[in-house]
Amino acid sequence: MKRSLTFLLLTLILSIWGCTNNEPYTNFDFERNGKPIFQLKGEKVYFPEILNPRKIDQKGEFLIIQESYRISSDKPLIHIIRKNPLSLYSSKGIIGEGPGKISDSDIFDPGLSDSTFWINAVMSKKMSQFNLFDTSRLSIREFRQPENMVLAYTIYLTNNGTFLGLMADSPNKLTEFDFDGNRLAGYGEWQQIPERPEMDNFLLSTYNKGKLKSNSAKKVFVKASLYRDRIEVFDYETKSFTIVDGPRLELPPAIISGSASNSTLVISMDQKYGYKDISVGENLIYALYSGQSQQEIQLTGKDSETVYIISQKGEMVAKIELDISIRGIAVDEALGKIYGLTTDEDPGIAVFDIPEELL
Fold it and tell me: Where does the signal peptide begin and end (predicted)?
């Protein structure tokens, strides 16, 4: 009798272990983690001044819209939109290489002042500071990346008066520089992928590329990867990383073209994207997830319709499903609004109300 009970108990334990082992529990398993899923209906607001928007961010009471550099050279690259009520406040950015002009508008940095913001033009390696409230389209200050920072393709100002950013070829995930371009520190080392031992630092950086953003306090910097489903939260005060993998745990396939220093990473157009954008709040991270390939986006016009809300400690809070496809995201927790750029033929700003349970 005792042997039979022992056998049954052992069988039950092995069965439970086997199920757990075959079906790993993740942050993104909403059937098991008990976290809520919300379906939100949005409203599109159209602005005729916004022609070919590519990025959306925020600064205080305003949204900052950045246009593609492919627009007509006489049109402004930056639009400042008042949030409440949603209306055009002003436009800035003159395309060009002269003083106060910018070649493109790629990276938005809220900066360290309430009245200004920075735009990083990646093509010319120049950061330009704009006044938020004046009427001029020209920048008021410029900073050109020194030679030591040429390979830095995404950089932000820190509260310590330094730069923190992503490098195209570095053993570190993040690198910190002073204003003279001197390297101060590197944070986080790339982990070699066992299945792809031939990947060097440059290829690993490409494989893990994505959007890097911070909040207004600049205490955390968050990177959301484009090709693989990974979010990395860097605590600038403790210099530590928190990594969240999912919803897909498998690594995306990639082909290495060329050899040695001339090698590049090729991602197929039918490979589904991971995260397209992020918005970092005071305590929460709003990660815009695509799950669509470039082919599907071109065919259907739909890009991203899912937002994962995650704490800065890497804990899942909720999943939001949107009824309007967007390509960028900005979140105002005080107003309880999610903003995104629509992906239809006449793009505008989609506005969603954050569920009261999450506020």
Answer: 1-18
Residue 1 lies in a domain: no
162 bridge partner residues: none
Q: Is the dihedral of CA 341, 342, 343, 347 positive or negative?
A: negative
Q: CB–CB of 170/153 below 8 Å?
A: no
Instruction: State the pLDDT at residue 196.
Output: 83
Q: How far apart are CA 312 and CA 9, in angstroms?
A: 40
Domain presence at residue 17: no
Q: Which residue has the higher pLDDT, 27 or 295?
A: 295
Amino acid type, 304: S
Residue type at 254 in one-letter notation: A
CB of 128 within 8 A of CB of 118?
yes
First to last CA, the chain: 57
- Per the structure, the complete domain to which residue 327 belongs is given by 31-358
The answer to the question of residue 141 being in a domain is yes
Q: Is the pLDDT of residue 341 over 80?
A: yes
- The 3-state DSSP class for residue 126 equals strand
**Is 26 domain-assigned?**
no
Domain count, the chain: 1
Closest CA to 182 of 215, 152, 224: 152
pLDDT for the residue 143: 94
Write the DSSP string, 184-212: EEEEEEPPPPTT-TT--HHHHHHHT-EEE
H helices of 243-306, in order, are 294-300
**Maximum CA pair distance of the chain?**
90
67 contact partners, CB below 8 Å, separation of at least 6? 50, 51, 52, 53, 54, 75, 76, 77, 78, 79, 93, 105
Report the CATH number that the domain containing residue 245 is assigned in CATH. Answer: 2.120.10.30
When pLDDT is cut at 50, 70 and 90, the band that residue 351 belongs to is: very high
Is residue 26 very low, low, confident or very high in pLDDT (cuts 50, 70, 90)? confident
